[in-house]
Amino acid sequence: MDIATPNDYRAIAAGLAFPSEAFINGRFVAARSGARFTNLNPATAAILGEVAACDEDDVDAAVAAARRAFDAGAWSRAAPEARKDVLLRLAALLREHAVELAVMESLDSGKTITDCLNEVGHEVPNFFQWYGELIDKSFGKVAPTDESALALIVHEPVGVAGLVLPWNFPLLMAAWKLAPALAAGCSVVVKPAEQTPLTVLRLAELAAQAGLPDGVLNVVPGFGETAGQAIGRHRDIDVVSFTGSTEVGALFLKYASESNLKPVGLEMGGKSPFIVLDDAPIDDALVSNAVSAALWNGGQNCSANMRQFVPRARKDEFLDKVLARVAALTVGDPLDPATEMGAMVSADHQRRVLGYIEAGIGEGARVVAGGGALEGHDGYFVKPTVFDDVVHGMTIATEEIFGPVLGVIAFSEPEEALRMASDSVYGLHATVFTRDIDRALHFARRLPCGTVSINRFSEGDIKTPFGGYKRSGSLARDNGTEAIAQYQQTKTIWIGGPEG
Ligand code: NAD
C-alpha cells in the first residue's frame, strides 16, 4: 500500500489494538499481581493504554516456560532448516504488518513515521531473515588429530537468554538480540523498556503465528527495578544481553555476581566524536552527515556524534552551514512523513536533556540554535540545539545527553583532535572526514571505539559487528556472525583421543 499523508497514518493509528498483557508460554496473560502501568504517546502526552507491570513472579513464570521449552527440544534441538523456516515466516509476517507496526512504534516512542517504516518495516524483518538463513550454513570444526581419534568442536545454544532492551529503537534493538538468540536455539525472556512495550509484544504474537513453539519467546513488560532486576538475578537464566545506559549495565554485572555468574553482554552509552580534518571540503554531504550524526532520532542514539571537532580556522564556515541545515529541520508530529525529528521519549527524559542544555550554558558554551523546549505542543519536544565554544572537559562534552544537541569543539592540530576525541570513558563510535587515506587509516586505527566511519556517518549494517570499547560495552557484539556467539557455548567432543 502506498501511504503518504499524515491522515492516512492517523487513520491507521485510530484503528490499532494495542497489546496490553505479558506474553508467556505462547499466550497473553495479565501480571500475576494484576498491576498495570500507564503507557503514553510522548508526542501528545495522550494515554495509549495500560500495560501489565510484571515483577519477579511473572519473570519466574516466563523463565519456567522458557526452560520447559528449551528442555523439550522442539526448538533448541530442532533441525537448522526447521528453525530457519520459522524465522523466515516471521520475517514475512513482519513485512506484511510493517505499516501497522511502524505506526504503533511511532505512537509509543515519539519517533518519526519515516524512521519507523525504515527500521520496523525493513531492517527488523531483514534481521530475522539474515539470521534465519545463517543457521543452516554455520559449521563446527574438526581439530587435527592422528587417525585413531576424531575431535569435534560444536556449538550448542546456551539455554535461557534474558534480553533487556532500551526505548530508543524499540523493535530494532529487540531484533538485534532476538534474531541471533532464536537462531542459536535459545529460549528467551525479553523485557522491553517501560516507555515502549508495544511492538515487541506484537512481534511475540506474530512469532507464535509463524510457528515458534510455546515458551520459546516470552515478553515481560515492566519496570527496570522489578522485572529487569528479576531477570538479572534469576538463577535459571543462563545469559543476559542488555542494551541501555552504562549505569544500569553495571548493575547487571552485580546481579550476575550475586546470583549464578551468568555471562552478561553489554551494549551501553556513548559520547562519540565527529572529526573534520582540515583537508575535508565542508560541502553539503559533510554538513548533512554532521547534522544527522548528532540529531538523528532526536539525538536519542547511542552512537550520536554529539562532539564535533572542527579545525579552528574552518569553524565559522562549518557552523554557518550546520546552522542553515538545522534551521531547515522539520520538528513536530511524528506521524507526518515530512517530519524529520519527533519527540523525546518521556517528560523525564525531556527534563534531563533540558538540564544538560542549562549546564552547557552555565559552563560557558554558547547556544547558537535551539536551546529549549519546542513551544506549542503538549508532547515532550526539544528544539534541535547547537552549541558553539564547547570546551573539552565541559559536562556537555563529557556526559551522554541523549538528546538533540550538537556541540562544536575547535582544534588546532589533528593530533589534538585525536587526543580529545579519545579522552572519554566511552568508546562506541567515531566519524572522520578527510580526503587523505593515510590520515583516515591513522585515525581509524587509533580511535578507541567499536566502529569508525570514514567520510560518512554510518553505524554499519546487519553484517558487521556492533559494540563498544571501554564503558560503552563488553566484549560481546551485536550484529554480524559475531552476535551468535553471545547465545552459544562451545563443546569439544573427543572420539578416541589422547589419554588422560
Ligand atoms: P536504561 O539503562 O535506563 O534502561 C535500559 C533497560 O534497563 C530498560 O529495559 C530498563 O527498564 C532496564 N532497567 C532500568 N533500571 C534497571 C535496574 N535497576 N535493573 C534492571 N534493569 C533496569 O537505558 P534507556 O534509557 O532505556 O536507553 C538509553 C541508553 O541505551 C543510552 O545510554 C544509550 O546509549 C544506550 N543504548 C546503547 C546501544 C548500543 O548498542 N550500545 C543501543 C541503544 C541504546
Descriptive labels:
single chain, 500 residues, alpha/beta, Aldehyde Dehydrogenase, Chain A, domain 1, Aldehyde Dehydrogenase, Chain A, domain 2, 14 helices, binds nicotinamide-adenine-dinucleotide
Could you walk me through the main structural features you see in this protein, from its secondary elements to its overall organization?
With 500 residues, the protein is an alpha/beta fold. It has two domains: 261 residues, Aldehyde Dehydrogenase, Chain A, domain 1, CATH 3.40.605; 189 residues, Aldehyde Dehydrogenase, Chain A, domain 2, CATH 3.40.309. Helices cover 38% and strands 19% of the residues. Helix 2 runs parallel beside helix 8 and helix 3 crosses helix 7. 53% of the residues are buried. Bound molecules: nicotinamide-adenine-dinucleotide. Nicotinamide-adenine-dinucleotide (NAD) binds next to helix 8 and helix 9.
The CATH superfamily of the largest domain is identified as: Aldehyde Dehydrogenase, Chain A, domain 1
CATH class of the largest domain: Alpha Beta
Hetero compounds: nicotinamide-adenine-dinucleotide
Instruction: Give the overall pLDDT as a whole number.
Output: 97
**CATH third-tier fold name of the largest domain:** Aldehyde Dehydrogenase, Chain A, domain 1
Please list the strands of the largest sheet in the order they lie side by side. 14-15-16-13-12-18-19
**Number of DSSP E strands:** 21
Shape: globular
Sheet with the most strands, sense and barrel status: 7 strands, mixed
